[in-house]
Amino acid sequence: MNLDSSPIAAIATAPGRGGIGVVRISGKNISSIIDAVCAMHGKPLQARHATLVDFVRADGSVIDRGLAIHFKAPHSYTGEDVLELQGHGGPVVLQMLLQRCLEAGAEIGLRLAEPGEFTRRAFLNDKLDLAQAEAVADLIEASTEAAARSASQSLSGAFSKTVQELVDRITNLRMLVEATLDFPEEEIDFLEQSDARGQLAGIREALTAVFTQAAQGALLREGLNIVLAGQPNVGKSSLLNALAGNDVAIVTPIAGTTRDKVIETIQVEGIPINVIDTAGIRTVEEAVDEVERIGIERTWAAVQKADVIIHMLDAARGPTREDEQICARFPESIPVIRIWNKIDLSGHNPSVDRMPDATHIYLSAAELAGMDLLRQELLRLIGWQQTGESLYLARERHLIALKSAHDHLELAAQHAAHDSEATHPALDLFAEELRLAQDRLSSITGEFTSDDLLGVIFSRFCIGK
Ligand code: GDP
Ligand code: ZN
């Protein structure tokens, strides 16, 4: 493997202020940086021991005082020599410390790390397999406890182990088949004696179970994107509070927006639900200035990407002209849940009514009547089934690989099923489909991975990870 082990550095802790902040360095020849930056008062750094030191400039003046830890290769996160400098968690002091390290490391070619580069090196040095490396990013990004639990499972290798067990079972079967290929007269007996069909059926069943766990787990990762539309005072905020229950909604600004459009993430049964509140959603023509026009365009772009639109109305008042205009602009491909709120005032009973235009739900957000009908409808929309089994926080890439492996095993079964009286079972084709299934599964843990795929996966990490 063509591994670049030139030294890299980055601030590993999140931007902003905190109790401590960490500058991490990994690669070859980093001892010279330790000597230059850490004033150790005569005590050398002992591997994997925290030592209190002064972080100093070239002239000896002190930048900060903190802990230095030297992890010697291969006993480190990346598998290379790693130096961690834990200073105080302020953006300026950390930036000064990073700059000082880059200056001290200039002669050994120390440079800033790219996003995900530490974890990429950990993968290339066999510290983690690819599914585990992806789980690192997923754990950091998890927005619900259930998602974090599943990511942590994958990080510990549970998903990789399950996939590897499938690969091993397929390999064993393949070896049996290929041993027989050289003796054509024995092919027919082989299928019976080795119970190849029975073994294949068992593998297919296990693969289907993994796929189900992974597909459900993917829902924990992706969640559901909801656009919440409706006129002022129909009860949108009340609905969010009622849905979130005791959970504190996580509010994140949409990247790059100039106005205060926010996505709130709440959870229903541990599934993140990202709600884009389109308060009084206007049209571009109504914009008063350029800034607002851009904001409105972004809002409508978000509407296009939603999994479901919740359009909220006042059951006592009925739709307004603005409601009709907004409805006309909803993309037809996105399902709509029309919520008729305030049934305590209108006298309706809580109910769900699936109509061609939309699913109509009558509820009261303030009185918490009919809220479960809405929760169930949201879970139904994304295909959530409670399995009670532990879930793997799978990515789209994993699901595609599992599905493809499943398809190849199905073809294998067809080749094995040929009527042995009339034609030979196509054992060579049987073996070939097994090989393809095995390849697809191996791509999950990254045994054979192209640089392009690695680039795509690791570029989405944050810097310093
Ligand atoms: P928003 O502007 O759409 O976010 O609406 P709010 O959630 O702020 O609610 C507007 C007003 O309607 C508030 O006074 C709420 O207490 C009230 N409200 C919300 N839901 C209900 C409901 O189900 N029944 C009744 N009677 N009032 C409600
Ligand atoms: Zn509101």
UniProtKB/TrEMBL annotation:
Localization terms from the record: Cytoplasm
Domain TrmE-type G: 223-383
Note on how the cofactor is bound: Binds 1 potassium ion per subunit.
Functional description taken from the UniProt entry: Exhibits a very high intrinsic GTPase hydrolysis rate. Involved in the addition of a carboxymethylaminomethyl (cmnm) group at the wobble position (U34) of certain tRNAs, forming tRNA-cmnm(5)s(2)U34.
Binding-site positions, Mg(2+): 237, 258
Residue numbers binding GTP: 233-238, 252-258, 277-280
Cellular-component GO terms for this entry: cytosol
Domain of life: Bacteria
Broad EC category: hydrolase
Protein family per UniProt: Belongs to the TRAFAC class TrmE-Era-EngA-EngB-Septin-like GTPase superfamily. TrmE GTPase family.
Subunit structure of this chain's protein: Homodimer. Heterotetramer of two MnmE and two MnmG subunits.
HAMAP family: GTPase_MnmE
Binding of (6S)-5-formyl-5,6,7,8-tetrahydrofolate, residues: 24, 84, 127, 465
Cofactor(s) needed: K(+)
Gene3D superfamilies from the UniProt entry: P-loop containing nucleotide triphosphate hydrolases, Probable tRNA modification gtpase trme, domain 1, tRNA modification GTPase MnmE domain 2
Known EC number: 3.6.-.-
InterPro entries for the chain: G_TrmE, GTP-bd, GTP-bd_TrmE_N, GTPase_MnmE, MnmE_dom2, MnmE_helical, P-loop_NTPase, Small_GTP-bd
Coiled-coil residue spans: none
Binding residues for K(+): 233, 252, 254, 257
Transmembrane segments: none
This protein's UniProt keywords: Cytoplasm, GTP-binding, Hydrolase, Magnesium, Metal-binding, Nucleotide-binding, Potassium, tRNA processing
GO biological process: tRNA methylation; tRNA wobble uridine modification
Alphabetized GO MF terms: GTP binding; GTPase activity; metal ion binding
The protein, known as: tRNA modification GTPase MnmE
